[in-house]
Amino acid sequence: MSDDDIQYPIYLDYQSTTPVDPRVMEAMQPYFSEIFGNAASKSHQHGHDALAGIEKARKQIAKAINAKPQEIVFTSGATEAINLAIKGMALSDRIKGNHFITVATEHKAVLDCFDWLKRQGFDTTILPVDSEGMLTVEDVVAAIRPETAMVAVMAANNEIGVLQPINEIGQACRERGIHFFTDATQALGKIPLDVQAGQVDLLCGSGHKVYGPKGIGMLYVRRSNPRVHLEPLIHGGGHEGGLRSGTLATPLIVGFGEAVELSCKGMKSESARLNELTQEMLKKLKASIPDLKLNGIADKRLPGNLNVSLGCVNAEALVAGLSSKVSISTGSACTSKEVLPSHVLDALGIDEEVLRSCIRISFGSCSSILSANHAMLAIADSYKRLSAFG
Ligand SMILES: *Cc1c(COP(=O)(O)O)cnc(C)c1O
């Protein structure tokens, strides 16, 4: 590949979404046309064929997290899975108490569900993180009360990429008989996940973050030791063990299963490649931006994530000015519509002014050294121009 082959804008926003892997497209293709049956039609071949595709995907996803296939519930995405996990627990008549715990750096879907909990009269605790974005198992244990029903801590952060000690937290919750839910949307297919080792009761993921299609997600719901009881939010034909009614999106589910399997197969080599690329690009950026600082802990983070503050330059202006050359974001896509500074960076205690200079770069499958180099040059160039004005 030569410089002329670079396609602009260079996409460096893989934590916002990913392109569908061509092998995933190929696996999905027949399920739009030939294999179009309704998986709930038990009486004929068309239904059986669609069901076979779905059951394969269920196995592929279960294997990726060391669960049983019947513990995977398909949803429209991670947002819906998060709503089902938290609200479904709150509305269950088997709920153990009225107190829920989570962390300030969670995805908005989790935090907004916690707002809902509060409005419904539940007690909630939102734990702070340290200046590197980390939570400890001791922090969680200290917040647990006799009436705590659930602890929700994400596996990998979507803005700063930090990895929380979910296995330790899960074990501590299990010892105390409290349900543990982890939003693993950024972690699935990127880092090893094991619901047995982590004593996880509920775990969610999404197709479009792992080179699968948009509009499909899943919730792992533990069925034994202990069985988790949720109240469904969507009622109807009783699909997905009664937990999520509605005709299953066969092509999307097949694609999601394939995407997860492929990501897990390539995990070791791809994470090594992305880690190396990320380190190299961080060095490059540091060399041209003297005030640059990495946000979030350096050694426990998702491969491919770089969230940095640039000092005095306004990130919104930088990202907008760069948009013909590089696609990156300031904070997360969900909050960048508002001009409000990211709640995640705010939770790290970063100064208001510095906070407005933060950008998130996320590398992925199509990021090469060559394209990344071009992107870093463009960012450094834009920084120079803007800081000359400042
Ligand atoms: C993207 C994301 C979500 C939302 O997923 P959708 O499938 O787009 O609804 C939730 N949590 C995290 C950590 C995410 O990165």
Task: Please give a quick description of this structure.
Helix content is 38%, strand content 13%.
Could you characterize the architecture of this molecule?
This protein is of the alpha/beta class and 390 residues long. It folds into two domains: 140 residues, Aspartate Aminotransferase, domain 1; 244 residues, Type I PLP-dependent aspartate aminotransferase-like (Major domain) (Aspartate Aminotransferase, domain 2). Helix content is 38%, strand content 13%. It is built from twelve helices and twelve strands. The strands form three sheets. It has a seven-stranded mixed sheet, sandwiched between helices. Helix 8 runs parallel beside helix 12. The chain is globular. The mean pLDDT is 95. Bound molecules: pyridoxal-5'-phosphate. Pyridoxal-5'-phosphate binds next to helix 3.
Average predicted confidence as pLDDT? 95
* Largest sheet, spatial ordering of strands: 2-8-7-6-5-3-4
Number of strands: 12
Overall tally of structural domains: 2
Order of helices and strands: EHHEHEHEHEHEEEHHEEHEHHEH
Main sheet makeup: 7 strands, mixed
| CATH homologous superfamily classification of the largest domain | Type I PLP-dependent aspartate aminotransferase-like (Major domain)
CATH architectural arrangement of the largest domain: 3-Layer(aba) Sandwich
State the end-to-end distance: 37 Å
Structural class assignment: alpha/beta
Give the percentage of residues in beta strands: 5-15%
CATH class of the largest domain: Alpha Beta
Low-confidence stretches: none
Round the Cα radius of gyration to an integer and report it: 21 Å
CATH-defined fold name of the largest domain: Aspartate Aminotransferase, domain 2
Tell me which ligands are bound: pyridoxal-5'-phosphate
User: What is the 3D form?
Assistant: globular
Question: How many distinct helices?
Answer: 12
The helix fraction, in percent, is 25-40%
